[in-house]
Amino acid sequence: MRDYIRRLLIAAIMALCVSLLFLGGKQTEASMQDAKEIKTGWIWPADGVISDTYGTRQGTHKGIDIAGSLNSPIVAVEDGVVGKSYFSKTYGNVIFIKHPNNVVTVYAHLDNRLVKEGHSIKQGDRIGTMGRTGESTGVHLHFESHQMEWTFDKKNAIDPEKLLGHAEVGVAVKEGMPGNTESLAASGFLKGDKAHYVVQAGDTLTAISKKSNLTVAELKEVNQLKSDLIKPEQILVIDK
Ligand SMILES: [Zn+2]
Known about the structure:
Layout: H1 2-33, E1 48-52, E2 64-67, E3 73-75, E4 80-88, E5 92-98, E6 103-110, E7 112-113, E8 120-121, E9 126-129, E10 140-147, E11 157-158, H2 161-164, E12 172-173, E13 189-191, E14 195-198, H3 205-211, H4 216-222, E15 235-237
Antiparallel strand pairs: 1-2, 1-12, 2-10, 3-9, 4-5, 4-8, 5-6, 6-10, 7-9, 10-11, 13-14, 14-15
Bound molecules: zinc ion.
Zinc ion (ZN) is lined by residues 52, 61, 63, 65, 142.
């Protein structure tokens, strides 16, 4: 009897999970419909096959994994400046690049690092080679993107798909190829752990403030803006 109840309970939980998944899917569909194109112009950082995506492992996986061959080139997704280049116990050989739109990209588990802190990088520049250093089970690139800065709790993480284009496990990607971002991001709003907004031409902080729950002062504070100056394609956090 107890066994029967347990089975019933498991079935109920599974039904709930499936319906939640279904609901989630519906919502994505709705926001995709009134989607507006964002051109961030990022390119794929490596050759390989997508082996994991953002938000898996109970939400702890804050990046995209691209599995490929040892020592294949890793390139910068966009122009930027190398913020950090070092060996970490978990990330292994890792490089952080800060881009003009205030997004920081992270390239982890590299075999080799070819750039140093402070280096200016052009999109497509080779910054390292693929490896399996640090806490990695196989040869792959673990790629993350963060708004403004990387933090230990990764609270500023953005799903790289929003900037790189659709990524699905098992799909092959080509280093240097532009991502398909056409159907992404609803009218400038990106979905991540926090709500983000991509500045459109003609936008002002006052106008963005009206679309968000933040005052101009709060917008400036959470985005560490020193003036009212914003530029198209800049990505802003729009909640606290
Ligand atoms: Zn990963």
